[in-house]
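Form 7-S
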Amino acid sequence: MTSEHFTKIANDAVASLCAHYPDTATMLGDHSHDDQLSDPSAAAGQRRADELRSLIARLDELPADQLDTADAVDRDILRTASESELLSLTDLDEASWNPMVHNPGQALYALLTRDFAPLPERLSGVAGRLRAVPDYLEAARGRLSGMSAIHVQTAIGQFEGTLALIEGEIPAAIAETGGSPDLSQEISRAAAAVREHQDWLRAELAGAQRPARLGNDLYASKLELVLATPWQPKLLLEQAYRDLDRVESELADLVGQTTGSANPDRAAIAAEFNRLAADAPTSETILQLCREAMAETTDFVRKHDLLTLHDDPVEIIEMPEIDRGVAVAYCVAVGVLETAPLATQFAVSPTPKDWSEDQVRSFYREYNNHMLHNLTIHEGMPGHVAQLSHNQRYQGANPIRGVFGSDSFIEGWAVYAEELMATLKYRGEISAEAAAAVRMQQLKMQLRAILNTIMDVSFHSGDLDQREAMELMMTRGYQEEGEATGKWRRVQLSSTQLSCYYVGYLEVLQLVADLRQAHPSWSDRQLHDTMLSFGSPPVRYLRQLLGLPPAA
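Output:
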């Protein structure tokens, strides 16, 4: 009876989450709230916090010895996710100082771009959300105070993307239906509300003095809960600096082999990166190059039998304006509650139209043609696209692992996939030089993941400043100035998210080593398929499901 009881608790928890966050519900595939926006008020936040406290109490009342392993893991995942959200609503209280979390653009965009129903039906949901925009933004202004300047600046820019969506993409979608429904009034009122909100944010900018840093205690609490990891900031930072030295040494060895030079220094490594950076895409070619790289990486995975491939549809799309300014690419999977046959989206961000020639040149030197192959491995094959296709096929007694998938496992798998492909000499069939170029970019990306963690920890629980961060990224990370500048911005805009790549990689790498030791006869495909067969739980729980002891 305990399993049935937990299943009810889990299903109730997911239903409550979807009711409180309608945009999240849409992305998960629950379309019963598609005409609604969430309530950003402090009172709604308090009600949600009370719900979470009640949920945690119900979970704690379950007798652990009467749950099977799968239910016990799902109970722990749900409890950790609930504690994490509760921290965000209470001690962190991000909704009171970060205006980026109060942008309705993504909620509207999801209805336009995800073909889960005929367009007229989805436009009905768009109409409801447009009508809700003025009250939503008014409530958000009532919640926001003591904001962070960099979050205000970024929010103002991202609301430009929301305006373009409301005044451009929504009317274009209506035109596809022959002009029905007529949402001209809803569009006009929503656009006016967005402009009013932008004006308010501009007026508040001068007084936005809140530090972007979380501070050591809040950061440590968030790291533990969001990443579901036993790593503590101090020990994580020490490990990251050790790996920084290790990867730089590997880079020096590779450059020595490819250039025939003995003991190359950082200048020689930088010179080799500069040579590779000259082979660069443009805004007109970047999407097609990623599509070609996707086909090539898929063929390589199939030839080397690295894991089972599922023939799920994938779209490589241009990143919408509302999402730009934080990351260069992302992968959006089909929601675990979705019943319509949708495609996974791999979004890539070309350069903004208002960038200078120097900014564009710097961007495409960083994301050169060799780096695009590594990026496609991470976002596509055998990274996110492959892992998430396996995730879609996990069928548990409840939806917890799909709804609360672990970012550190998902990103850790993708970083591990980069290393796996590079060490197997991906592109070696083209030439040894092409394989070495991808390996160079993979090591550079590994440096980036390590530096992301160093900066994330050192900024939010220390005193890292821009000068130190830029020096780290450009000297020890070999990054272009534009990339480093954007990453410094991202360090300030987010917390713990930048650490999930490195933390996840450490945990996945140890898991692979332990699984190989426990099952030495397993092929790569058997090992990887087994790892991916349990959904996307945090690695600490995946070890439990695999019958492995906790990591040392």
